[in-house]
Amino acid sequence: MEWNIVLETLSTQGMKLLKEHLILVGIALSIGIIIALPLSILLTRYPFKKWTKEILSFLNTAQGVPSLAVVAIFLPIMGVGFVPSVIALTLYGLLPIVRNTIAGINDVDDDILEAAKGMGMSNKMILRKVELPLALPVIIAGIQTSAVLTVGTATIAVLIGGGGLGNLIFTGISTFNPALILTGSIMTAAIAIILDQSIGFLQKRLSSHRG
Amino acid sequence: MSVVNYFIKNIDKIWRFTVNHFILIVLAICAALLIWVSVGIVIRNNEKLANGILGFGSLMMSIPSIALYGILVTVPGFGLSRRSAVFGLLLYSMLPIVRNVYIALNQVDKSILEAAKGMGMSSKQILFKVQLPLAIPVILAGVRVAVVMMVGIATLAVYIGERNLGSLIEQGIRRTHFDMIMVGAVLVSMMAIAIDLLMGKLENKLVSPGLVSEDKGDKVVS
Q: What ipTM was reported for this prediction?
């Protein structure tokens, strides 16, 4: 193992790569959530609701497109760099959030909705006070999936000039330097796990007082 | 239509890549079914062990796939070989399959199990004749997720020496060859979708007709 190379790389580029990775994931995930939540709530409302089943099966299928392909397809269309990487990551991260939000809201028991309606709640109130709180665990699970997926996929973004920790991994693979691969992998995995755990913690905090 | 031209011109090479890709997936899914379904069965009555195993599975999921391959290559005995590729896919498929087997087996109604016991069935008979048949829809949902994921992740195995559909994408990126990327991406996606549809058909065949109207357990996989 070439630990001195690793130490040198880390001391010169470590912080920069870590920061690039975090920014890439942070921006892609935030845009993903901002787009996905309203979109999927809209898809559970009246005129669109009847297509829910089709939309869900389409989303499940779309998840089958490999991340490498998603990232690669953006290369010819948008060129290399940070922006194409963010767009590719956002698009890939959208699916789990949309899928879970739609599934979560539609899973809310019809009896509960009827009870809420009977109590004189408006549609808006039902959404805000009944459907969303009940669907929250499923929605957050979707965001967790999306976060882990995005952190992992961001390592591939280096191939189209997105930067980030993938740099260490791919340099390690092409120069056959195990230490470099391990360092990059462990750092990426650590980000994924920390992000996953803290979103899970947040979910527990958000829904605990509702018994 | 340069994409189509590229496809026709290189049909031999593309076919080789496709077959390679498919063989890798089949090897991995066979190993995964054998190992992870048994693991799921073993841990079904042991919550502590199950928590540990499922925790390990989700840890594997958190490691980016390219990193997992990268790590495996450095392990002595694996190296740049198909073994690393299969093993990586195996680790990745752990969570969806084991989790669904475990949940499905435990979801079987307690009163059904008691009835089976009352009829004098041994615990082995209960497992094979009652629990597993009832659990098949949820188990298959997990397997489907795993297979679709495998088809995608297998493209990354090109970086550790596999020669499959990922090669088209990888070389396409390196040479900024749009047609190559498109052909690779479309074929891989088509393979994932086709396998998923096939498994859906298989599911309809395998699941006893009395269970069809029930919830297929899609919710378990989130």
A: 0.74
